[in-house]
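Most newcomers find our protein records easier to grasp once they have seen one. Read left to right, the backbone structure tokens trace the chain's path through space. Once this layout is familiar, the rest of the handout is easier to follow. The record below serves as our worked example for the rest of this section:


***
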Amino acid sequence: YDEGGQLSERVRRNPYSVILFDEIEKVSPPTNKRYVLFYRIRNSDQYLQTAIEYAKKKGAVLLLISAWIDPTITIFAIRNWRNVIFRPAIGPEQFLCAIRNAVAVFTPSFHGCVFSIIFHKQFFSPKCSSWNSRIENLLAETGLKSQLLLPKESASNTDINWTKVDEALAAMRQRGHNFLDEALNPLMQQA
């Protein structure tokens, strides 16, 4: 828009290449304290104790974000108020900012894993084959299967080789671009 239609033209020609991360730069972190993020969706509470122990080892509090307000999790947050900050129902910009500023992320969410990878954040996800095959496929393709945790398993401090992960992501992006080019070029020729 500000570039006289240049961005619009680039988006029209390459619609899968634009993500506006500069918007999250404007968002303040959810807390001034050092934190480990636990994004709670579905029944992932069995990983909560692992996340708290990891946060303690890192000298951080646990920032608990929940997709819904649940009495069990609210009581948990109140009982552990010294070590837990509870933020129910945050928006997309705050969610991305929370991931970007976290020491580490515990998430059963595919998108939580994706953004942890994009921001090069240490992260862990529960190994529950019944509902997270997309996560398992992504982690297998990027060499990050070690980030999957079984219930009550402790989270390791293994460093992630982000260079290898970025190389794998570049190859995945290229395959995606090739697929979209093949699918969209005939349509773009008609326009």
Observations:
- Helices lie at 6-13, 22-25, 48-57, 71-79, 92-101, 110-118, 133-141, 162-190.
- The first strand starts at residue 35 and ends at 40.
- The chain has a mean pLDDT of 81.
